UniProtKB/TrEMBL annotation:
Protein name: Response regulatory domain-containing protein
Segments forming domain Response regulatory: 161-281
Species whose genome carries this gene: Trinickia symbiotica
Keyword rRNA-binding: no
Domain of life per record: Bacteria
Keywords, ordered alphabetically: Phosphoprotein
Gene Ontology biological process: phosphorelay signal transduction system
4-aspartylphosphate: modified positions: 210
Keyword Electron transport tagged: no
UniProt xrefs under InterPro entries: CheY-like_superfamily, Sig_transdc_resp-reg_receiver, Tscrpt_reg_BetR_N
């Protein structure tokens, strides 16, 4: 039976993991790094998981619990002194009542017998556990269900979509990671043509673009943004070529005035850039 996918309350689990790390003396600023080490995640993945904005699987919960030699039930909010918990294992299951089925997390204990009554029992069916009310004669593979949790899906906050247009892969990846960590959904385009093609079918809440792409500037692409469905999207222009003379200060000034663009020199300070972006989108 699979244990990997779960609708466990991500925010509640994240809060318990943070509390456990704090109890074990791990400073707040080091907790994401430690979680990434335990679960072999990227920093942005670990950051989202520790904030509760990324779902936890039962396998991940067990792995964290084992790393700190703690019972997994503690991280899912189940007291160890509840009857039967010590022998039970959390499993992904379907709670079946009449014709209706709900995905759930079931704590499944020992097999039932004539001397052991259970209100609900679980049966393994293929790769799925099915939980039903115990009625009549029970099959030999019926197991006691200690606890059942049903977690309705929480409404997810929409993550603003930001186009990152830069042929410098290193710079684009650094900005993408920082935006993702800050709660945005970045989409990277390595050429102006790819970005302009995307504009025809996608809507971007904001655009961050380099200025020079070989002999071509981003002026036409920015004009395309201003003609798009999201014409008021904030546009941030990045350039590191003003001092070298490759970028024309007068051309950039014209774009700033005419197309309402903000300009940052490379290498941009990402914290300041993203703070400005957040403020303009009302996302601060």
């Amino acid at each position: 039976m699979t244990n990997d996918a779960t609708s466990m309350d991500s925010l509640a689990v994240a809060e318990r993991v943070r509390a456990l790390m704090t109890k074990r003396g791990i400073a707040k600023r080091q907790q994401t790094t430690e979680l990434c080490r335990i679960l072999e995640l990227s920093f942005s993945q670990g950051h989202r998981k520790l904030r509760g904005s990324s779902p936890w699987t039962l396998a991940q919960i067990r792995k964290v619990a084992e790393a700190f030699n703690e019972p997994a039930a503690q991280l899912v909010g189940m007291a160890q002194d509840e009857p039967g918990v010590a022998e039970a294992s959390a499993r992904e299951a379907l709670l079946c009542i009449g014709p209706v089925e709900w995905p759930c997390i079931a704590w499944i204990g020992n097999p039932v017998n004539a001397h052991r009554y259970a209100e609900y029992v679980a049966y393994p069916r293929g790769d799925q556990w099915r939980v039903v009310r115990a009625e009549g004669a029970l099959a030999a593979d019926a197991c006691e269900v200690v606890k059942i949790e049903i977690h309705p899906q929480r409404a997810q906050d929409r993550r603003p979509v930001v186009a990152v247009v830069d042929r410098d892969r290193t710079a684009a990846e650094a900005l993408r990671a920082y935006l993702e960590q800050s709660g945005f959904s970045p989409v990277v385009h390595e050429s102006l043509s790819a970005f302009e093609d995307a504009l025809r079918t996608q809507t971007f809440d904001a655009v961050v673009t380099d200025w020079l792409f070989g002999d071509e500037t981003a002026a036409a692409a920015i004009e395309a943004v201003r003609r798009s469905r999201q014409s008021a999207a904030p546009v941030f222009l990045l350039t590191g070529e003003l001092l070298t003379g490759k970028a024309s200060e007068s051309e950039i000034s014209d774009v700033i005035r005419r197309l309402d663009v903000s300009c940052y020199e490379k290498p941009a300070r990402l914290a300041i850039l993203v703070a400005d972006l957040s403020k303009r989108l009302g996302f601060a």
